[in-house]
Amino acid sequence: MRFYIDTPPAYDLTYDDVFLMPNRSAVTSRFDVDLSTSDGTGATIPVVVANMTAVAGKRMAETMARRGGLVVLPQDVDPSAVRDIVAWVKSRHTVWDTPLVLTPGDAVADALNLLPKRAHGAVVVVDEDARPVGVVDEAACAGVDRFTRLADVADPDVLTMPLTAAPRDVFDQLHGRRPHVAVGVDDGDRLVGVLTEVSALRADLYRPAVDDQGRLRVAAAIGVNGDVAAKAAALLDAAVDTLVVDTAHGHQEKMIAALKAVRAAVDAVSRDVTVVAGNVVTAEGTRDLVEAGADVVKVGVGPGAMCTTRMMTGVGRPQFSAVLECARAARELGARVWADGGVRHPRDVALALAAGASSVMVGSWFAGTYESPGDLQRDEQGQAYKESFGMASKRAVSARTRGDSGFDRARKALFEEGISTSRMRLNPTAPSVEDLLDAICSGVRSACTYTGATTLEEFHAKAVVGIQSASGFAEGAPLPLGWA
Questions:
Q1: Residues 220, 167: one domain?
Q2: Each residue of 148-168: pLDDT tens digit?
Q3: Given 197, 224, 239, which residue is the final one in a domain?
Q4: Does residue 105 sit in the same domain as residue 87?
Q5: What is the SS3 string spanning the chain?
Q6: Choice between 451 and 376, residue whose per-residue pLDDT is larger
Q7: Are residues 316 and 339 in the same domain?
Q8: Residue 419 resides in a domain
Q9: What band does 197 get if pLDDT is binned at 50, 70 and 90?
Q10: What percent of the chain has pLDDT over 70?
Q11: End position of a domain, from candidates 197, 219, 247
Q12: Residue 397 confidence (pLDDT)
């Protein structure tokens, strides 16, 4: 990447401060762009879900990996629960989505409670042998007593297809049909998964992130306290594919010691596991973590939507400049960086990749989706939302210190960084994390075509970045409500 002006400004830059210049391009289609990452994680799109308990869970991990991304399970999750989540995700089909399943004797209320758990919007009704006998969607439940049995409302016209069916064939069979889901069955006609028209399209457009056994990939985080080596060994034994050593201030001795312990644990196993560590915002911090064993360094202090660090401490750095400097330092040592935090639009993802990041971490942006772990709630106007909270918030600290004494918990509560909690509303027309991925990947693909690049590494090499004023940024923002 290079700046359009000869001399970059003497101050640090945020994503809003910069823009990409179009180049002469021979790339004729966005579909010619390969979004695979270069950091060894096996991800086929440059998006990582941050290790926030409000965002990263098993549904998110399954969905993201199926579309080529990664989810980092939080370090606050009990190791036995992480093992169960990883095993569950790795048992999922790489094309067909996990179905919502009930029996004919279950009630309409049960179906309505389950429907918001998945974006495909349907419950498959199965018999005692797990064979599909009907499909129920929200429309079938409208105006029906909540205690009505599903046998009375399920549509028996179920489109079943073999798991080997090509996504294009599934789309063609579904086009113009209701119910709007195809049901994938095994050789014994037992239910395995579902596909909608849109998910069939996505299965053709995206490539799943899979390990060497063809199973979906999962990452998990480790803190820097306690027996780090033992925690790393437990996660490796659980078949985690990427280990993320995570703390707010990554350029410290405790991190370096923890990172060396994790590196030793990874080197002792007979499979490739990528080690990520952070967070830092300087070249010096990047070099120290790479030399301690990191394959990837996580960059960002304070840019996240739920992060109060900069307002509480004054510590941090504008994210674009941090990513640019750290990426250059990492690449000199054969490593890569993840840009962690501060992305609010697809353009920000493209700019982080142009600056040299191999992937971009997203947190709160994905909290308001069907796939995040939180319960779906409704506000006073009936609008659906989920709660998002930072990992230094009261809720997160309370969960993390539940095993401490009352005195220690009270003492730590005095030093919480802030509330950092918010309602993240679901977009009624795009309520799934896959909808957000479509927007992000479409934007990044288009940015590559404007730059003349067919890979992300080529994109970084060819990107030309300009500096803009606040009014320059505002000029590029659309006017959804018109001129009036």
A1: no
A2: 999 999 999 999 999 999 999
A3: 197
A4: no
A5: CEECCCCCCCCCCCHHHEEECCCCCCCCCHHHCECCCCCCCCCCCCEEECCCCCCCCHHHHHHHHHCCCEEEECCCCCHHHHHHHHHHHHCCCCCCECCEEECCCCEHHHHHHHHHHCCCCEEEEECCCCCEEEEEEHHHHCCCCCCCEHHHCCECCCEEEECCCCHHHHHHHHCCCCCCEEEEECCCCCEEEEEEHHHHHHHHHCCCCECCCCCECCEEEECCCCCHHHHHHHHHHCCCCEEEEECCCCCCHHHHHHHHHHHHHHHCCCCCCEEEEEEECCHHHHHHHHHHCCCEEEECCCCCCCCCHHHHHCCCCCHHHHHHHHHHHHHHCCCEEEEECCCCCHHHHHHHHHCCCCEEEECHHHCCCCCCCCCCEECCCCCEEEEEECCCCHHHHHHHCCCCCHHHHHHHHCCCCCCCEEEEECECCECCHHHHHHHHHHHHHHHHHHHCCCEHHHHHHHCEEEECCHHHHHHCCCCCCCCC
A6: 451
A7: yes
A8: no
A9: very high
A10: 95
A11: 197
A12: 57
Q: Is the pLDDT of residue 64 over 70?
A: yes
CB 281 within 8 A of CB 301: yes
CATH code of 39's domain: 3.20.20.70
Q: Is residue 216 part of a domain?
A: yes
At 428, the amino acid letter reads P
CB within 8 A of 320, min separation 6: which ones?
A: 12, 13, 14, 15, 17, 18, 351, 352, 355
Is 326 noted as a catalytic residue in this protein? no
CA distance 2 to 423: 38
Structure tokens at 444: 């990044």
Q: What is the mean pLDDT of the chain?
A: 93
Residues 155 and 269 in one domain: no
Asked if residue 104 and residue 84 are part of one domain, the reply reads: no
Q: Specify if 482 maps to a domain.
A: no
Q: Into how many domains does the chain fold?
A: 2
Q: What would you report as the CA-atom Rg of the chain, rounded to the nearest whole angstrom?
A: 23
Q: Which of 280, 233, 293, 278 is nearest to 48 (CA)?
A: 278
What is the pLDDT, as a whole number, of residue 393? Answer: 52
349 and 259 fall within a common domain: yes
Please report, for the domain that includes residue 108, its CATH number. Answer: 3.10.580.10
Q: Which domain holds residue 123?
A: 100-197
pLDDT greater than 80 at residue 315: yes
pLDDT of 375 reads 81
Residues 307, 326, 441, 448: which is the catalytic one?
307
Among all chains, which residue has been given the structure tokens 């042998």?
129
Mean pLDDT, residues 340-346 taken together: 95
Residue 408 covered by a domain: no
Residues 30 and 72 placed together within one structural domain of the fold: yes
Report the C-alpha gap between 182 and 442 in whole angstroms: 26
Same domain, 300 and 446: yes
